[in-house]
TrEMBL record:
Keywords: Membrane, Transmembrane, Transmembrane helix. Its main location: membrane. GO terms for molecular function: catalytic activity. It comes from Melaminivora suipulveris. The keyword Transferase does not apply. Residues 24-277 form the EAL domain. GO terms for biological process: signal transduction. One of its GO terms (cellular component) is membrane. This is Bifunctional diguanylate cyclase/phosphodiesterase. It is found in: Membrane. Coiled coil: none annotated.
Length: 281
C-alpha cells in the first residue's frame, strides 16, 4: 500500500513525470540485461586522411530484442546518469582493443587506428587509467593505435587530474582527440596544456559550412588553431563532396562522414577498407 501511495503522490504531482521515470527505469533495467546478454555491438566509421582510410571511430550500437535498434542519443546520457556507463564504457574499450589486436598484422587493417568515445564519468572515475591499460594488455593491442575521444566539458572539471591521466596514457602511446570541438567552453590556455593529437570540428559547423558564413568562419578558425598548435584537425559529419572540397581548401585534410560511409558493422567496414586498398581495375 505504501508503494501505491507513493505512486498516487507522483501521479498527483505530474502524470507525465511518472511515465518518464518509469520509462527510464525500464530502459536502465534493459540496458543492464542487454550488456549481460550481448546486445551491444561496435560499429566502425572510417576516417579519411589525404584520401585514404587512416582509422575508424568505434560507435556503440544497441540492438534491443523488442524495440529494435536504439541509438546512442537515447541511452548514453541515461547510462551516464545511472552509472552503467562505467561497465558499458569498459566493454567498449575492451572490444575496441580486441578489434585492434585482431587487425594487427593484417596488410590493410593492421595500420588503422581506432578511436573510442569516453564519457565524462568514465574518465573521472579513479580507475580509468588502469582500465585502459588493462584493456590494452588484456588484448595485446598496440597502444599507439588506440585513440580516446574526450569532450571539452570534461577536461575543465579537474584540469590537473585530467592532464595527469592524459600524460600517463600518452606515455604508453595512447592518443587523444577533442571531440565536438567548438560546442563547449574551451579555454585556449588549457588547450595549449593538454597533450592532444587531434581536434574534431563538430558536425554542427560542417553541416552549413557552404551556406552559413559564420559556420565557415568557425570551421576555418578551428583549422587554423589546431594546425598552429600542431594538431590533426578532423571534420565530422561530412556528407557532400562540396563540403569536403571546402574543408580541404581551408586546410582540413581529414574527415569522417556519410560522404564515404556511416558507421558500419565490422565486416562491412573491413570490406570497405580492402576494396579501397585494392588497385583500381
Ligand atoms: P560523436 O562521438 O560525435 O560521433 C559522431 C556521430 O555523428 C555518430 O552518431 C555518427 O554516426 C554521426 N555521423 C557520422 N557521420 C555523419 C554524417 O555525415 N552526418 C550525420 N548527420 N551524422 C554523422 P552516433 O553513432 O549516433 O553517436 C552519437 C554520440 O553518442 C557520439 O557522438 C558520442 O558522443 C556518443 N557515443 C557513441 N558511442 C559511444 C560510446 O561507445 N561511448 C560513449 N561514451 N559515447 C558514445
Ligand atoms: Mg566521437
Ligand atoms: Mg563528435
Ligand atoms: Mg557527440
Amino acid at each position: 500500500e505504501a508503494k501505491n501511495a507513493g505512486r498516487n503522490t507522483l501521479r498527483f504531482y505530474d502524470p507525465r513525470m511518472q511515465a518518464v521515470v518509469a520509462a527510464r527505469a525500464q530502459l536502465e533495467a534493459d540496458m543492464r540485461a542487454g550488456l549481460a546478454e550481448g546486445q551491444f555491438e561496435l560499429y566502425y566509421q572510417p576516417k579519411v586522411a589525404h584520401g585514404s582510410i587512416q582509422g575508424a571511430e568505434a560507435l556503440l550500437r544497441w540492438r534491443h530484442p523488442e524495440r529494435g535498434f536504439v541509438p546512442p542519443s537515447e541511452f548514453i546520457a541515461l547510462a551516464e546518469d545511472c552509472g552503467l556507463i562505467l561497465q558499458l564504457g569498459q566493454w567498449v574499450l575492451q572490444s575496441a582493443c580486441k578489434q585492434l589486436a585482431q587487425w594487427s598484422g593484417d596488410e590493410q587493417l593492421g595500420a588503422l587506428s581506432v578511436a573510442v568515445n569516453v564519457s565524462p564519468r568514465q574518465f573521472h572515475e579513479g580507475g580509468f587509467v588502469a582500465e585502459v591499460l588493462q584493456a590494452i594488455a588484456g588484448s595485446g593491442a598496440d597502444a599507439r593505435r588506440l585513440r580516446l575521444e574526450l569532450t571539452e566539458g570534461m577536461l575543465l572539471q579537474d584540469v590537473e587530474d585530467t592532464i595527469a591521466k592524459m600524460v600517463k596514457l600518452r606515455g604508453y602511446g595512447v592518443g587523444f582527440s577533442l571531440d565536438d570541438f567548438g560546442t563547449g567552453y574551451s579555454s585556449l590556455a588549457y588547450l595549449k596544456r593538454l597533450p592532444l593529437h587531434e581536434l574534431k570540428i563538430d558536425q554542427s559547423f560542417v553541416r552549413d559550412v557552404l551556406t552559413d558564413p559564420n559556420d565557415a568562419a568557425i570551421a576555418r578558425t578551428i583549422v587554423a588553431l589546431g594546425t598552429s598548435l600542431g594538431l590533426q584537425v578532423t571534420a565530422e559529419g561530412v556528407e557532400t563532396e562540396a563540403q569536403r572540397a571546402f574543408l580541404e581548401k581551408s586546410g582540413c585534410h581529414v574527415w569522417q562522414g556519410y560522404l564515404l560511409a556511416p558507421p558500419l558493422p565490422r565486416e562491412r567496414f573491413e570490406a570497405l577498407v580492402r576494396e579501397r586498398a585494392a588497385p583500381a581495375t
